[in-house]
Specification:
Layout lengths: L12 H4 L4 H11 L5 H15 L2
């Protein structure tokens, strides 16, 4: 299930409504230490492009 998989952000509005992408990333990685930070960073860049499209 996606909601239980830390590779997925269950609710992307949390990202869009966060104070900053960096604070969101720090908190997410702190709560999900098994996630590859580099892959997560790349995925956030793609998500940011969706927001700005």
């Amino acid at each position: 299930m996606i909601r239980k998989n830390p590779q997925w952000i269950a609710d992307i509005s949390e990202y869009f409504n966060s104070e900053s992408p960096l604070s969101f990333a720090r908190k997410y990685l702190e709560c999900n230490p098994d996630v590859d930070a580099k892959i997560f960073e790349t995925n956030l860049v793609h998500l940011g492009r969706v927001q700005n499209a």
